[in-house]
Design goal:
single chain; 192 residues; alpha+beta; Jelly Rolls; four-stranded antiparallel β-sheet
Length: 192
């Protein structure tokens, strides 16, 4: 079952044969996190590459007196401090389970061992490219769109996000206060 989930999730980027995913899954171990459990602490090195089976996670950065949400990850997507995984250095980023979550993880050592195989190189390259494109798009949206427009895009990407993620994290991700997010949500509700 895990191999089919992995294949289906990555097919949009790279259609690899099922035996590739069977080998990848052989390096993985299941792990569970409670809601609000820290997966990777700030100022530490990332030790694992995670793939979310059920649940969600967020990537946070400490700024002034609280954490700012930089990204969300949900089912059928990868999640980790990817910058730390690639550089093998500690970063200021913290990764937290935002819901009770079921994931699989592969150690950074095994992640890099997979890269010695041509298909493993392709998987790593595709993961890095997809992450880069998503971050660039997020930066463009932050610089060129209003909070209302960015919120609509977020709702389109994750339709039930409000049932799953705390409003303070959504607001932080959008770069606004929770009060501003409440106002935007009320204005949207009156339009529909």
């Amino acid at each position: 079952m895990l191999t089919e989930i992995l294949k289906k999730s990555f097919d949009q980027y790279f259609n690899a044969p099922i035996d590739v995913w069977e080998e990848f899954a052989g390096f993985c171990e299941p792990i569970f996190f409670a809601k609000d459990e820290v997966i990777k602490q700030q100022n530490t090195k990332e030790k694992y590459f995670y793939f979310i089976i059920k649940g969600s996670a967020g990537v946070f950065l400490w700024k002034e007196n609280n954490f700012v949400c930089l990204d969300f990850a949900f089912e059928n997507s990868a999640c980790c401090d990817y910058m730390s995984l690639l550089t093998k250095e500690p970063t200021e980023l913290e990764v937290v389970a935002l819901e009770k979550s079921e994931m699989i993880r592969i150690s950074s050592t095994n992640f890099y061992n997979l890269s010695s195989k041509s298909v493993g190189q392709i998987i790593m390259q595709i993961t890095a490219e997809a992450s880069f494109v998503e971050k660039q798009q997020q930066q463009i949206e932050l610089l060129t769109m209003t909070a209302e427009e960015r919120y609509r895009i977020l709702q389109t990407k994750f339709p039930n996000i409000h049932q799953r993620i705390a409003q303070k994290h959504i607001a932080s991700y959008l770069g606004i206060t929770p009060q501003s997010l409440s106002r935007i949500r009320k204005e949207q509700a009156t339009k529909h």
